[in-house]
Amino acid sequence: xxxxxxxxxxxxxxxxxxxxxxxxxxxxxxxxxxxxxxxxxxxxxxxxxxxxxxxxxxxxxxxxxxxxxxxxxxxxxxxxxxxxxxxxxxxxxxxxxxxxxxxxxxxxxxxxxxxxxxxxxxxxxxxxxxxxxxxxxxxxxxxxxxxxxxxxxxxxxxxxxxxxxxxxxxxxxxxxxxxxxxxxxxxxxxxxxxxxxxxxxxxxxxxxxxxxxxxx
Amino acid sequence: xxxxxxxxxxxxxxxxxxxxxxxxxxxxxxxxxxxxxxxxxxxxxxxxxxxxxxxxxxxxxxxxxxxxxxxxxxxxxxxxxxxxxxxxxxxxxxxxxxxxxxxxxxxxxxxxxxxxxxxxxxxxxxxxxxxxxxxxxxxxxxxxxxxxxxxxxxxxxxxxxxxxxxxxxxxxxxxxxxxxxxxxxxxxxxxxxxxxxxxxxxxxxxxxxxxxxxxxxx
Lengths: 216, 218
Prior knowledge:
The complex is a heterodimer of chains A (216) and B (218).
Chain A: H1 3-19, H2 24-37, H3 43-56, H4 59-71, H5 73-81, H6 83-89, E1 100-104, E2 109-114, H7 123-126, H8 136-141, H9 146-152, E3 162-167, E4 173-177, H10 189-193, H11 198-202
Parallel strand pairs in A: 1-4, 2-3
Helix pairs in contact in A: 4-5, 5-6
Chain B: H1 28-39, H2 48-56, H3 60-65, H4 68-82, H5 88-93, H6 112-115, E1 123-124, E2 137-139, E3 159-170, H7 172-175, E4 182-191, H8 192-195, E5 205-211
Antiparallel strand pairs in B: 1-3, 2-3, 3-4, 4-5
Helix pairs in contact in B: 1-4, 2-4
């Protein structure tokens, strides 16, 4: 990208800032009307995408992957070796997961996922990222102060546990495989999956509760 | 580009909203914009890196203060204006003043079923052998450049270790300008103590996915 490109785009942003309504909802309404009028958009297709990413594609997919990995050592091996192939077995491939990598927590390693440069996320497995994942607060601190970030989420890590922070700077997308809680040996896949939280798969939660007191 | 988007390690952004509610969208307009972006006809081939570059060029105050999906909107709006699909006046009013010839009909709701499973790969075949091997020590380039790049400031001029080779992936610094070539992509880890003075004595590491051009030739 040349300096000319940068100047041109900056100038367009300046005009958009000045001329578009300030209120996001009004901006979106104008964009939708315009695209429909230009023949570039069917509003029912918009509804369909919202429904898919509200009802079908979300953290429960990731939780199903985790529970299966806990129960099936062969699946776990395939998941860690080639995440994309393993989620494709479950029909979970899609947006942003062509190069999907799963990193495993152990008693001595804790993994944390971030994208400091934008907000990269494994959408087809975890759905829409939480807003905090996209904020300057999380993006700035996750790489520099991961223990402080974890403390805000209520996790205190022992000094000798190694924190591995994964900054998604390319098209590889990461998910954490949390540790299976003790006392769940007899549990089936559905019951195990219900334990797995979105935050645990991002890495901002470490201990999964086997009682119903943990809400995240 | 050494822009405001390059947030890793910056200080002063405050605590994280750990009590945010779990639903995917927090306002109707957020869901709407998300759906529009998935469903709209693309009249130009906008690469992921061009999208990122255009978002990085949002005014720094807007970048830090306007909501995330509002930034998506402004980025798509900028790309539409730049490629001649719409004018700023049309985007402001929501009324079209010029029709586009030869457009295919918009995507149907039925198209979502297949599209939700569509994946875009970024690795490419190459005959170039990677220059670095697993376990090798590397030093990242000290300087960035004014164009799009995925080497964050906090990891420049630092010594890391090659953790894995991921084949050749499309190189963002050239892909943004539409001249994408592929080159070796490595996962590299840095001791946190190499990056941050206060991490001294901790066992922690930070992993980044970095292209071969991001390393100094020692």
